[in-house]
Write a structure and sequence with these properties.
single chain, mainly alpha, transmembrane helix, Multidrug-efflux transporter, MATE_fam
């Protein structure tokens, strides 16, 4: 394949991906803001919010598959010129997001008992429940926002997604400052104030996305909310069967990292702190291939709807090459600036800081090593979602993360004598296995000929 044929795909994928990457980074910045500002309020509230936000995130990931999966469906329907399918699939994704929010609400409302059963201290469990009893009302707006993000991105307006997400950062910061500490004449609500700030921010972002999804020239013809309450059982079932495996796949990956966090804690607080810094740096870097994956889903989905096999192949190659390029950039940064970056997270006057920085520098080598594998597996998932293949990839991902990644990490760290680096080698093994299996799944399917099938009629 010549570069001349691939160049337009590289340009188009990058143009679509950059706003999506920016929106992912901005969304992560909102979460970091919550954690930092609650940390100023107290140690127990900070511990509780770390636990509570992790719990919310896992439940959110479980329900996110409908909003993520519908992205490829919309792109395929647009390629066919089927406005009805776009409207029905998006509407049913919004329905399923609402149902998911209702189903998980009791878990968040009575989360205190769950946290106590998991061995948390009573004061931390109480603060965690206080946070989640507010944030339970944010689940539906957050998932609606994800679905509307997919709708607008598939229409070629990811810039609106970026605008809405970035706008949420200063709003969330100001609300946190007012509601956590009681400034600007507001009551001092502490942990609940942080949750209320996030709730208000998410509702505001959802409102803006609804406005854009109904008023933009590209979106108006779809009349997204026309007869919104009319049931569509066939489409509902199709989007459910497409989206649930995506949610389970994402929970499986999050679970692998969570399990690694727990095992890393067995080596002591300094090691866990270093691991947390290295892992957060890896998470920030991951936003780049994640945005590329979203763009690949849209482009592959569009060519899938047209039945343009050669263009599907080129769109896939473009995503892979861009992911490799950005992974190499990240690896270079990690290997050359690890100590300087780690120092930003730590108090220079703390006598433990030099030792933790040294630990971060050692672990970040492994974080650099799995950048390529992590990028490849998420790009493969993006290509497979573009052709609406999610169930077998879910199985492949669960096998990779839970039967390869976690057990190998435990063995290498606890039995083979590698210590903390062994857990990172386990992550590398799980992600590499997923990358290989998912890539093989896509390209074998491509060789046999993907058969486009409508999700909604």
């Amino acid at each position: 394949m010549s570069f001349k044929n691939l160049a337009p795909h590289l340009t188009a994928t990058l143009g679509l991906a950059l706003p999506l990457i920016g929106s992912h980074l901005a969304r992560q910045a909102i979460g970091v803001t919550d954690t930092v500002m609650v940390g100023w309020y107290g140690v127990d509230p900070l511990a509780a919010v770390v636990l509570a936000t992790s719990s919310f995130f896992i439940l959110y990931m479980l329900g996110s598959g409908y909003g993520i999966g519908v992205m490829g469906v919309i792109a395929t329907a647009l390629a066919r010129g089927d406005r009805t399918e776009v409207r029905r699939a998006t509407r049913m994704a919004l329905w399923l997001s609402t149902v998911h929010a209702v189903l998980v609400l009791p878990l968040m409302w009575w989360s205190g008992a769950i946290l106590l059963a998991l061995g948390q201290r009573p004061e931390v469990a109480a603060y965690g429940q206080e946070y989640l009893r507010v944030m339970c009302w944010a689940m539906a707006p957050t998932l609606w926002g994800l679905t509307l993000n997919s709708f607008l991105a598939a229409l070629g307006r990811p810039n609106m997604v970026l605008l809405v997400t970035v706008a949420g950062i200063p709003v969330n910061m100001a609300l946190n400052y007012a509601l956590i500490f009681g400034h600007y004449g507001m009551p001092e609500l502490g942990v609940a104030g942080s949750a209320l700030a996030s709730l208000i921010t998410n509702i505001g972002q959802m409102g803006l996305l609804i406005y854009f999804a109904t008023t933009l020239p590209e979106a108006r013809p779809f009349q997204l909310f026309r007869r919104f309450w009319n049931p569509d059982p066939e489409t509902l079932r199709a989007v459910f069967l497409l989206g649930l495996p995506i949610g389970l796949t994402m929970v499986a990956e999050v679970g692998m990292f969570t399990g690694t966090n727990v095992m890393m804690g067995w080596f002591g607080s300094d090691v866990l702190a270093a691991h947390g810094i290295a892992l957060q740096l890896g998470s920030i870097a991951f936003m780049i291939p994640l945005g590329l994956s979203n763009a690949v889903t849209i482009r592959v989905g569009g060519f899938y709807g047209e039945g343009a096999r050669s263009e599907i192949r080129r769109a896939g190659y473009a995503g892979i090459l861009l992911s490799i390029f950005f992974s190499l950039v990240t690896i270079t940064i990690f290997l050359t600036l690890s100590r300087q970056i780690a120092a930003l997270y730590l108090d220079a006057s703390d006598p433990r800081t030099p030792a933790i920085i040294a630990l971060v520098a050692g672990l970040i080598i492994y974080a650099a090593a799995f950048q390529l594998a992590d990028g490849m597996q998420v790009i493969a998932l993006g290509m497979l979602r573009g052709v609406q293949d999610t169930r077998i990839p879910m199985v492949l991902a669960i096998v990779s993360y839970w039967l390869i990644g976690l057990p190998s990490g435990w063995f290498l760290s606890m039995r083979a004598g590698f210590g903390p680096p062994g857990l990172w080698l386990g992550l590398l093994a799980g992600l590499s296995c997923a990358a290989v299996l998912l890539m093989v799944r896509f390209w074998r399917g491509f060789a046999r000929g993907w058969t486009p099938g409508a999700v909604a009629r």
